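Q: I'm writing up a methods section and want to include an example of the input and output format. Could you take the sequence below and give the corresponding predicted structure tokens, formatted cleanly so I can copy it straight into the document?
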Amino acid sequence: MLDAWKEAVVEAPAFYIGWGGLLIGLVFGALIVRTNFCTMGSLSDIANFGDWRRFRSWVLALAVAILGVLWLERSGLADMGSSIYLNGRLTLGGHVIGGLLFGVGMVFAGGCASKNLARAGGGDLRSLIVLFVIGITAYMTIGGLFAETRVAIVDATSVELGIEDQGLDTMLAALTGMDAGMAQLVTALVLAGGIIIYAFADKGFRTSPTHVVAGIGIGLCVLAGWVLTALAFDEFADNPMIASLSYVRPAGDSIDYLMRFTAYDGMNFAVSTTIGALSGAFLMSLVTRKFFFATFQDSGDTLRNLSGAVLMGIGGVTALGCTVGQAVTGASTLALGSFITFAAIVAGGFIGMKLMERFV
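A: Here is the clean output for your methods example:
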């Protein structure tokens, strides 16, 4: 069946990537609104109330995505080496500095890129402006005003690992002499299994359907993204790559798509999932009667949100992803850099909250 699907997608990739990505984004955006899934909010819950349930949702999404990627690779449908996350060069400084900047930024902006997409879909004009600033700043960091500084920092702090890629399973195989396939199976099952046990060990979490559904649902959305782009993968394309959900650079890609619509043959995966998430949040907000227009409260609120957006745009590109793009999508490939980014974002989030307490 997978072979038949792949043949159909390869024959009309623009159609399937556009509409398939839109559908995945719709489900993702609707889930964010319906379950109040929020990575920044999870850190705030921990710091203020000692409530770890939303954090457990976050890591449960990662566990689901890890198991999904394991299935994809062992079925032969996908090779995660064709993603941006796995290579033998660990951009250590980029992951740490970028993650810290993103973590602080998401606190200042009241949420990460995906949460701001959900809020914008629900009528929050602040979040819509935040997304535009994230997208513009991301492009400035990729090849614009901030690009040379980013490249200099990343190059100066990168580490050549001397192995095929930076996957934790590859490292295990290199250290133990274990067969690569067995190392992958052991690493994925131990990590995912440990996370699942950790998540459901808490009675408050396992008796909260909303938090459980959020974690499983977000993980399945990431898996769906991997499946779709793997089916559309063409090794003879100009820039062959498989990908899944991420929302920093895609915010900039979406702005570029809207400005240069006639230059595109159709929506790529980044654009379709971003527009889909915005649309899904909009529809769910209408269904649940949560749609309302909101804007900045005052000049201080404006400055905090926009500075947070700038930090997320710079940090997300430097770290190669965000709370979804690295901490779920990237980490599902078992890439060491993704786990480092995850930890740096969490640290940056707590730093951001301390800064807010002190100066606001």
